Amino acid sequence: MSRIKELRKVIGNELRKSIADVEKLESAYAHLYGVSLAATVIAEKRGENSELASMSAMLHDIAAYVSGTYDDHAHRGAEMAREILLRNGLAKPGEIDIICSAIYHHDDKLIKDEPMDEVLKDADVMHHTFNDLAKPVKDKELARYRALRQEFGLPVHE
Question: Are 123 and 42 a contacting pair, CB within 8 Å?
């Protein structure tokens, strides 16, 4: 089994233990899988490691889903991700550092960080904005949303 498939099993178990409400559980799955797919595409386009991008995306909101709060979820999530990856032997130490850095920084949408951090930030924005085109784009995500539209050759509209 591939590492990403194994990680998805582990995350599924964590989500089912933590989220009793069926709609919230479905929403969590949809977001993690959506961001994971977006991260894979963005990483491939930018020449980054798409497997690590997908893995970071699958873990990026784990702290929020397990605890039920988004308070400092990116920083807490990086530590949870490190523990999950180590406990399950899913990545080497250097890979874990890359994944956890992306998770740690993913909520800092107005700051430019390392390339893999940027992949996860942009994948998160892509899912937030393209998942429901009727919703207004958040101010902190607007610049990234416009840049993504341009990067992917989509018309930029207000």
Answer: yes
How far, in Å, CA of 87 to CA of 41, rounded?
A: 28
* Dihedral, CA of residue 146, residue 98, residue 39 and residue 108, to nearest 10: -30
Structural contact between residues 94 and 69, judged by C-beta atoms closer than 8 angstroms = no
Q: Give CA–CA dist 80/99, Å, rounded.
A: 11
Confidence of residue 139 (pLDDT cuts 50, 70, 90): very high
Residue 8: which residues within 8 A CB-CB, separation 6 or more? 58
Q: What are phi and psi of 144, to 5 degrees?
A: -65, -40
CA distance 44 to 139: 27
pLDDT digits (tens, 9 = 90+) for 106-123: 999 999 999 999 999 999
Residue whose pair of structure tokens reads 């089912």 in the numeric block: 16
- SS3 (DSSP) at 111: coil
pTM above 0.85, yes or no: yes
Residue type for position 155: P
- How much is the CA Rg of the chain, to the nearest whole Å? 15
Query: What's the rounded Cα separation, in Å, for the pair 40 and 33?
Result: 11
